């Protein structure tokens, strides 16, 4: 019996039970039958959750690009691996076959080797959504270099801190990027970032916009001539199962971003398996995930998951509103997309526009539509189901995280009955539990609590780059012996899960994970600011938006508050990126604090949400009178 593909609900329960009772047999068989290995494992899994130590396929040897590319060549070398849909729809789309992908990745791998990059070196990739991005990622994996893709919307200082944290040797970037009718000066941002990055010795620059840029002698080189000279054949590095494949930064509720480390074999097995089952992938499907490869969704479900299955995956450079609001639907029609995977924030934004944008297109090719990144509200779910899926396509609401590597809780298309706003059931191998405040597991159904996972799965991140203690503290200490997700969830009467949102100080804005602490740090660097506190509040399109309470140093001096708000947001934009800008800023003379000096964010959150009922016992605050002042000054 093969476990790789689930064909019915009954089989799902069978596989699920098997995966819990005999996880080693279950994953061992999947790994053995569906991938090529240089050497098999001694043990399927070895772990100690209390110490945050997890290893899968111990001592196995493998290269993920052999599995993404080489093994497909004999039978489907001419099949399209990647469809590149450019920002401007009048520019021709590119179809890159598996053969061509092999050649392009090989050339790039050879360029990297010639430039002195070898196994274990970190390479920062800061590129727009162009084929070079996919090729660079895969070329790193080919030679065992650890890729650290940084979303090309992050500011220079955000890129610099990520480069420095993982001590990258090289940056791969482009002369610029397109975003709707704007062009972005990516190379300029990298130049600024590299003023403060001593470990970077070389920069490779892809051409995209033909913008005039400065090239620093001895450091910067154009990529194209190097590729032209490179040979189109390459040997894949033999990687240990637990060698790091990549680092991807995600915001934490405190401190600097966390460089989540994913390793080779477990991530490979898990992304391939989840892609196949959640989206019910079949041989001739055309899969389109609209995320950016700079986020985990793009890593796992634009690149690795689809390519491991020999699928055709779409890389979309543009945005949903350019040239108009029918761009997604037009593109689905153009490439006959069968599975479409996007974020609730995009669905909400498009649902606000005239229905004719979507109704113009029959969208008959679609089979499955997916959602990821934040809770999908009932209205958005129905709009998506009715107008995009034509009530025929299952909506797979997929819950997972940068840390989990792949999808954890989701309906399996055509198998699990869906329920609006519910991510439904855990995938095989995933053992979710809900915990109460006293750290007890909550049994039974119709309950809610903090969502933890009590057994390791192959895709779990293994550590935070350079800081294992932080990894342990963040994920394995709140509920000892269990992985704590940071999310709250409820379980309904049949055992379906609904994710209710973060229970920590991370706010999900337009599907982007933003830690409040780094934003507060950025605001506090403004010379007029003494202290600040950021909370999230509900927003129609973004899901959540940011509300900042700011105490000024000398309030009298800065009379032009409008200007100050602009400056504060500019600081946030410069330090983190435009995605972290605040929607509302309220100047206050104090923040509600406990006697030990801790800001009572619960109260601030309620005020920002406009809920003035039941602040709890505020008499224990150091400064209870401030609550009234803040309520009166609330920005609406
Ligand atoms: O709060 C959950 C939310 O996004 C967080 C993870 O964010 P990130 O690491 O950026 O990864 C996003 C893409 C996988 C989670 O802790 N989240 C993600 N998917 C869902 C979700 N919340 C509700 N429903 C989802 N389907």
Automatic annotation (TrEMBL):
Record domain Acetyl-coenzyme A synthetase N-terminal: where: 12-68
Classification via SUPFAM superfamilies: Acetyl-CoA synthetase-like
Keyword Nucleotide-binding: yes
Annotated transmembrane regions: none
Domain AMP-binding enzyme C-terminal, chain residue ranges per copy: 519-598
InterPro entries from the UniProt entry: Ac_CoA_lig, ACAS_N, AMP-bd_C, AMP-bd_C_sf, AMP-binding_CS, AMP-dep_synth/lig_dom, ANL_N_sf
Listed EC numbers: 6.2.1.1
CDD domains attached to this UniProt entry: ACS
Gene designation per UniProt: acs
Family under the similarity heading: Belongs to the ATP-dependent AMP-binding enzyme family.
Protein name per the record: Acetate--CoA ligase
Enzyme class: ligase
One Pfam family per UniProt: AMP-binding_C
Protein source organism: Flavobacterium aquariorum
PANTHER family: ACETYL-COENZYME A SYNTHETASE, ACETYL-COENZYME A SYNTHETASE 1
Stored PROSITE patterns: AMP_BINDING (PS00455)
Top-level taxon of origin: Bacteria
One GO molecular-function entry: acetate-CoA ligase activity
